[in-house]
Amino acid sequence: MDSLALRLRSRLLPALLTALGVAFLTAGLLTYTTPVEAGPESSEPPTIVTLPPTVAPSTTPRASNDPTASPTPTVPADRVATRVVVSALGIDLPVIKQPAASTYPLCDVAMYIEWPFPPPGQPGFGRATYLFAHAREGMFLPILTASKIDNGAKMLGMIVEVYTSDDQLYLYEITEVRRHQLNLDDAIAATTEQVWLQTSEGPKGTRPKTQVVAKFLSSGPADPAAAHPDPKPRVCG
Description:
By secondary structure, this protein is α+β, with helices and mostly antiparallel strands. The protein has helices at residues 2-27, 141-147, 185-189, 224-227; strands at 47-50, 81-86, 91-97, 110-112, 128-132, 159-164, 168-181, 194-200, 209-221. It is built from 4 helices and 9 strands. A hairpin with a 3-residue loop joins strand 6 and strand 7 (168-181).
């Protein structure tokens, strides 16, 4: 029985995760975002830069939020991300769910992915929260721009703030910058509290994306006004 369980974990689970990654690709997730600049599809191989354990965060969390040392013990089932901030990059966007009728991401907001199986991909549920936005002015363009310098090494250690619908603030530290990525396998498979930020690398239809991965640091109460920005999404192409 133990041998059978081991085989299931070692063979079937990776296959399932890979299949899900392919399904997301097929659905067009990794062709969603469009940057300002145009150009041919990247032929460069995927690259990943990782934060060394000894490197300290480059941005200090605001003490006024008084985050605790661990995620909120009781997580409302309907919690969703409402705002994402990367102060060091000048990013501050409302976060919304992509409308069901929309096949292309809206502008002036970030959006979250709803994983096809529980637990949900939202802060506090112990897995990856996956946020994506266009690489445009006022959106995730700074991520794309920074990723082109030393493969984004300067972003390592920066703080990502994610506010939630129940007035909580989650703080994460950027530990990886992944360029020219074609799947979501590692985000889907994550079993620890993380946030992933995705933006594109080329014109509409370009497949490779840049992903930023950040590990959980702390969480705590947030000012309700700060946690509930007024999103003004607009259709863009």
